[in-house]
Write a structure and sequence with these properties.
Elements: E1 2-6, E2 15-19, E3 29-38, H1 41-47, E4 64-72, E5 84-88, E6 97-101, E7 105-107, H2 121-134, E8 142-146, H3 151-162, E9 166-171, H4 174-183, E10 187-190, H5 196-202, E11 206-211, H6 218-224, E12 225-233, H7 246-252, E13 255-258, H8 266-286, E14 293-298, H9 302-310, E15 317-321
Parallel strand pairs: 8-9, 8-11, 9-10, 11-12, 12-13, 14-15
Antiparallel strand pairs: 1-2, 3-4, 3-6, 3-15, 4-5, 5-7
Helix pairs in contact: 2-3, 2-8, 5-6
């Protein structure tokens, strides 16, 4: 099968499509003939040599896919060959085939395009596990999302609104903020032109902040919280270190958490995907939330896909079509 690995840490040009053995599904696994693979920030970090793979994970890129069940391993009764599915992976998605734990696989929601479904699993699992799980979201609360128009932002805005929340977002341009408004965001903050913390204080504060920036935002994130607010850090795009005023944190009765999805145990991922099935899939099938795919590239153009992803100019997901490898 054709699959993508990297020859050496660096830019998009280091990504190579090569011929590798097709995986075989083990007990409890299914083999998926991949239709689409979603791009994620962790893929870019992995390419640069700045992301350690979980123990035992393949060095083939890709954390989420959609496709068709090709085979089922021993002990799997929940899927059959021919089923259209989407799956959350530790790695291995930029390929024609991938073997994955059956508990991390869900049927493609009715009415969702098979290729576009590739952009659902990682963002849905991230928002559910961090906003609903770690963040303990309740309807009526305000969630601030840093990064309005990336995959997590675009999906998170819609999901939080659909489940009864109020959404504030930050972005660097008016065009990105308008896209966020169209998706349902209530509070739009251009972080280049205004202090997001001051704006959030004026808006009553955030109950939850979903933070992809990390260190440089720590102090202002605390300032932006409502009493009993929760900061959930899922990325470090701005750096790994920041200053924390414990007096301010204690006065807010607030908390700061940091989480990763990729290296969670198979059991934890199974629980998260069950929550995605319960909370997210019905909203997709009802049309209350939708996939937003900006560009689709053939697998053979993976370097171009990464180059565009790195510009941070996209709104929504970038997907590789793994059915086109030449």
């Amino acid at each position: 099968m054709k699959a993508v690995r990297s020859t050496t840490p660096g830019g998009p040009e280091t990504l190579i499509v090569e011929e590798l053995p097709r995986p075989e599904p083990q007990a409890g696994e299914v083999l998926i003939r991949v239709a689409g693979a979603g791009l994620n920030r962790a893929d870019s970090l992995q390419r640069r040599g700045r992301y350690n793979l979980p123990p035992g994970a393949s060095d083939i890129f890709g954390m989420e896919v959609s496709g068709t069940i090709a085979e089922v391993g021993p002990g799997v009764s929940s899927f059959a060959p021919g089923d259209q599915v989407m799956a959350l992976l530790a790695s291995g998605g930029y390929a024609e085939y991938v073997a994955v734990h059956a508990g991390h696989v869900l049927p493609v929601p009715e009415g969702t395009d098979l290729l576009e479904a590739a952009g659902i699993p990682e963002v849905a699992a991230t928002v559910i596990s961090n906003v609903w799980g770690t963040g303990r979201f309740a309807p009526g609360e305000t969630v601030l999302i840093h990064g309005a128009t990336g995959g997590i932002g675009v999906f998170g805005i819609q999901l939080i609104k659909a489940l009864g929340g109020r959404v504030a977002v930050t972005a660097s341009t008016s065009e990105k903020l308008e896209a966020a408004r169209d998706l349902g965001a209530d509070v739009l903050i251009n972080y280049v032109e205004e202090d997001f913390a001051a704006r959030m204080i004026a808006e009553g504060g955030a109950d939850i902040i979903l933070d992809t920036v990390g260190g440089p935002y720590l102090g202002r994130n605390v300032d932006a919280l409502a009493p009993f607010g929760r900061i959930v850090t899922i990325g470090m795009q701005g750096g790994t270190e920041g200053n924390l005023n414990f007096a301010a944190l204690m006065k807010k009765k607030a908390s700061v958490s940091g989480t990763l999805l990729r290296d969670r145990s198979p059991e934890q991922k199974t629980q998260i995907m069950a929550e995605v099935a319960r909370l997210v899939v019905p909203l997709l099938e009802a049309g209350d939330i939708r996939t937003v795919t900006e560009r689709v590239y053939p697998l053979s153009d993976v370097a171009a896909a990464h180059a565009y992803f790195d510009t941070k100019g996209h709104v929504g997901k970038i997907v590789l079509d793994c059915r086109h490898t030449d």
